[in-house]
Structures are given as structure tokens and as C-alpha cells.
From TrEMBL:
Start and end residues of each GFO/IDH/MocA-like oxidoreductase domain: 127-236
Record-linked InterPro entries: Gfo/Idh/MocA-like_OxRdtase_N, Gfo/Idh/MocA_Oxidoreductases, GFO_IDH_MocA-like_dom, NAD(P)-bd_dom_sf
Record-listed E.C. numbers: 1.1.1.18
Protein name per its UniProtKB record: Gfo/Idh/MocA family oxidoreductase
Species per Swiss-Prot/TrEMBL record: Arachnia propionica
Gene Ontology molecular function terms on file: inositol 2-dehydrogenase (NAD+) activity; nucleotide binding
Pfam families in UniProt: GFO_IDH_MocA, GFO_IDH_MocA_C3
Domain Gfo/Idh/MocA-like oxidoreductase N-terminal intervals: 5-118
Keywords of this entry: Oxidoreductase
Lineage, uppermost ranks: Bacteria, Bacillati, Actinomycetota, Actinomycetes, Propionibacteriales
Length: 329
């Protein structure tokens, strides 16, 4: 069987990493690249740098990776779908929920595989966490908290911290817990002099009564990427910067000193850091998308899921503006 022919549009910071992985995975050939702004990172490696998606689609492609700025995702994605070509679209899926829905319909009507590049879903720590939650190792889930903080990335100009960063946490929270967002409340801040928010603190309810909290900003001088799940049997902490997963068990030894027992509540048990394989998340994402096109077992972020992420992002923005919970059921 011949290799899949892949094209890439958008040769910026993420585009260069997509190109590297497209060239590295088995069964795929990167045969064409495009960017109206040229190739600042030398991604092409001998391929001509085409000016736009129209020129890209003339190259007899099986699929396209769309790593252009968010504001162009809908326009490019609709052209790719119309041409009958599969697509992996960087997150967020589109600038608005309405745009995202149009992409969902376009790919569905053509029977094409469309996926969204929520790379955190493929972080080894979160992959392992989902397996352990699904196996019931935490028992009943009570709360999931995420903290995604760091300095402002100058490359982001067309969306705020909610759609750029919090979108990661929205997708991974729903995926790891296998729950759906129901109610969303948020507060935002604008401290960097831009038109978009650079800090958000959100409290949400997911199906089954699960509570989630998300603290995300571009105002912290050091990076933090944590996902903390608390449940009946203890707590998991996934650090996606280091791909480490640690379990803090509730204690099984009774505290006989009454004063300490009353003060502590749940007692401290064993602490376990799991030894897990740590493949590159973007490589895993590309392998899953390739397998989806080939009809193999795979786990991709579907366009429907990506659209729902955008919907929850917009609910956070709406909640901050109206001081009310927003229902996204």
C-alpha cells in the first residue's frame, strides 16, 4: 500500500513541529507545504512553498494539516472539505462556535475524517490518567482542577487566553473524565493592554455532578501545567510539562489521636509516581490521525468535540461579561 500524501498549511511555530512529525511517522509522505507569509523556520526542506490552500489542494493530497491562525480555519477547512480531503485542524477548531459548526457539517456531509489538534489529550501522563480513572482506581470522582499558567506568547494575536490555552483544559477535562460540560461560570482579566483576556478563573459543572476549576493565564513568569483529580480513594496529579503522573492515596491506617483525626479529615496514605513511557504527544496525535484515515482503531479529537470546546470557551467569555452561569447542555 502506498503512503498517504499529506500537505501542511501554516509554517509558523506549530507548523514546523507538524512538518517534523509528518516526515517521521510511518505510512505518510509530506509532499506539499503552503504559507502566504513564506517559510521562516525552513520547514519546506526543498519543497516549493505554495501561496495558499488552493495551490495546496492541486497536489493530489489524501489529507491536510491546518496550522494557520485561528481566524482562517473555517475558510481553509471548508475548501479542504469541498475538495474531498481529510483534515487535522489545529486548536481551537474555529474562531466562533458557529464557524466550528459549519466545519462539522462540511466534513460530515462528505464522509471525511476531520480532527482537532488538542495535543494535551496525547500527553503520556493524561493518557495514563484516563486509563486509571476508567479502571475505577479513584472510585467516585469529586473534582478536577487544572492550572495552566505562564508568560505571554507573542505569536498569539487573534484570540485570548480562553480559546488559546483554556481550550486545552476543556478538552482534556471532558476526555479524561468522560463527562460533558453542563454549567460554566468564569471571571476574566485584561492586564496586557490587548483586546482579548489574558487571565481566566472558571468554575464548571460536568455531567454526574462533577465539579471542575480552571485557572489559566498569560501573566505568570514561569510555566505551570497541572491537572488534579480528587475522588473517593485519593488524588491524581498529572504534570504535563514533565509527563509525570502521581497518585496520593487516602490513608488506610486509623488515626487514634483524636485531635489530629478531627483536624486532618481524610488521612494521608501512600504516594506513587508511576513509571510510564513518554512518547512525544504530537507524534501520538499524528499517528492516531493517520490510523483514523486508514480505518484503524484510533482516538482523535473529533470535529464535534472540538466545536463543543469552542462553545464552552464562549460560555466562559459570556459568563465573565454577564456575571451569570451559562448552560451549555
Amino acid at each position: 500500500m502506498s503512503n498517504l500524501r499529506a500537505g501542511l498549511i501554516g509554517l509558523g511555530m506549530m507548523g514546523r513541529h507538524h512538518a517534523r512529525n509528518l516526515r517521521a511517522i510511518d505510512g505518510v509522505d509530506l509532499v506539499a507545504v503552503a504559507d502566504a507569509q513564506g517559510d521562516p523556520h525552513g520547514v519546506a526542506e526543498g519543497l516549493p512553498v505554495l501561496p495558499d490552500v488552493d495551490a495546496l489542494l492541486e497536489q493530489n493530497l489524501d489529507y491536510v494539516v491546518i496550522a494557520a491562525p485561528t481566524m482562517y480555519h473555517e475558510e481553509i477547512g471548508l475548501k479542504v472539505a469541498e475538495a474531498g480531503v481529510h483534515a487535522l485542524i489545529e486548536k481551537p477548531l474555529a474562531k466562533t462556535f458557529e464557524d466550528a459548526q459549519r466545519l462539522v457539517r462540511a466534513f460530515a456531509s462528505k464522509g471525511l475524517v476531520g480532527a482537532v489538534g488538542h495535543i494535551e489529550r496525547y500527553n503520556p501522563a493524561l493518557q495514563e490518567l484516563r486509563k486509571r480513572l476508567e479502571a475505577g482506581e479513584l472510585g467516585d470522582l469529586y473534582q478536577i482542577c487544572t492550572r495552566r499558567q505562564g508568560p505571554f506568547p507573542a505569536r498569539i494575536a487573534d484570540v485570548g487566553v480562553i480559546k488559546d490555552l483554556a481550550s486545552h483544559d476543556i478538552d482534556l477535562t471532558a476526555w479524561v473524565t468522560q463527562r460533558d460540560y453542563e454549567l460554566v461560570a468564569a471571571r476574566t482579566m485584561f492586564k496586557a493592554g490587548r483586546e482579548y483576556e489574558d487571565m481566566v478563573s472558571a468554575t464548571c459543572q460536568l455531567s454526574g455532578g462533577l465539579m471542575s476549576n480552571h485557572l489559566v493565564n498569560w501573566l505568570t513568569p514561569t510555566k505551570e501545567r497541572l491537572t488534579i483529580v480528587t475522588g473517593e480513594k485519593g488524588m491524581f496529579i498529572a504534570d504535563t510539562l514533565t509527563a509525570d503522573l502521581t497518585f496520593y492515596a487516602n490513608g488506610r491506617i486509623a488515626t487514634t489521636w483524636d485531635d489530629i483525626a478531627q483536624f486532618r479529615g481524610v488521612s494521608e496514605g501512600d504516594v506513587t509516581r508511576f513509571a510510564i513511557a513518554k512518547p512525544e504527544p504530537l507524534r501520538t496525535e499524528h499517528e492516531n490521525f493517520r490510523d483514523a484515515i486508514l480505518g484503524r482503531d484510533s482516538d482523535v479529537v473529533t470535529l464535534e468535540q472540538g466545536a463543543q470546546v469552542v462553545r464552552v470557551c464562549e460560555a466562559m467569555i459570556e459568563s465573565a461579561a454577564t456575571n451569570q452561569f451559562v448552560d451549555v447542555r
